[in-house]
Amino acid sequence: MNHYLLLTPGPLTTSDTVKQAMLKDWCTWDDDYNIDVVQKIRQTLVSLATSSNDYSSVLMQGSGTSSVESVLGSAILPNDKLLVINNGAYGKRMAEICQVLGLNHQVLTFKETQAPDIALIANTLTSGDFSHLAMVHCETTTGMLNPVEAIAALCDEHKVRFILDAMSSFGGITMDVAQLNIEFLISSANKCIQGVPGFGFVIGKLAAIERCKGNAKSLSLDLYDQWHTMEHANGKWRFTSPTHVVRAFGQALLELEQEGGVAARQARYQQNQQLLCHGMKELGFEPLLPVEMHSPIITSFYSPSAPEYDFNRFYQGLKALGFVIYPGKVSDADCFRIGNIGEVYPEDIKRLIAAIAQAKYW
Ligand SMILES: *Cc1c(COP(=O)(O)O)cnc(C)c1O
Q1: What is the pLDDT of residues 227-247, one digit of tens each?
Q2: How far is the CA of 100 from the centre of ligand 1 (A)?
Q3: Are the C-beta atoms of residues 312 and 134 closer than 8 Å to each other?
Q4: Which is nearest to 353 in space by CA: 255, 268, 283?
Q5: Could you say which of 29, 169, 291, 335 is the most buried, measured as most Cβ atoms within 10 Å of its Cβ?
Q6: What pTM does this model have?
Q7: Known binder of ligand: residue 42?
């Protein structure tokens, strides 16, 4: 069914069965949809995130950013103060949301190729009166995996509520939100769960969701109201839900379970990433980040220094061979990115490496 393999972390390559799940029309207020599909999805999401009973989930229309905006715009009360950790485009986007919504916040900015400085963050938390901290888990800009355990420990120590943008990692990297004492985790349908784009979701502490009541800066992105309707009207969405996309997501969750769960998926992604990195190095490409900062999600490589190299020719050449890669997003280095999440297997990565080796596009 696919014309090419998307090596882009969202939208990504989905299975034929996920796509087929969209071939029926569904009624938004019928139990077949709400109870059998939506409620089941909400429960499954929580069970993927933790075994604790203190958490619930909310699905939210829009791309992943809508869900981030929904959390920040609902959870930061007038007397709260948020510390935003920024070491890439998605950390920066959270800061932009705070600015647009007029939230009380401070941004701590690091270089895109630099891991967040734990000591500096600790100092900032000590000297300020912060109620919340928000960070990206896997910075998709570079592929860097940020130090979630260390930051979670700092938040615990300083009694600060931890908001994690786990958009490109949830479902592909094992973690327990209760163990990390995460207040809100945000992700979306078209990343590691391997669904199609159209909505995002939030896994949050029940008490934290209830704390948002009456505080939202937006009607359609009101996290509490959306949760309240879903929770008390058996999976109903307040406004038109993306029914086909939600059905596809239900199928994608089933396929995650069939694969063996998050740990098994992480192992496949890791194997993909290691093959990619190794194969690219053999071809003379250098990854942007040192290996210990790599995530199993996406990898940035420096563009070849050959003067004949042109990203667009490289891109078009690979696309003709069945692979779509991603342009770079780092501000001060010339790179391109290759993702390996989605319905992508080690054999695909081997074929990709062979394609790049065979056809030098510069
Ligand atoms: C994909 C992604 C988002 C959301 O981007 P959208 O374009 O709104 O879907 C947010 N944060 C991270 C880390 C991402 O990878």
Answers
A1: 999 999 999 999 999 999 999
A2: 18
A3: no
A4: 283
A5: 169
A6: 0.97
A7: no
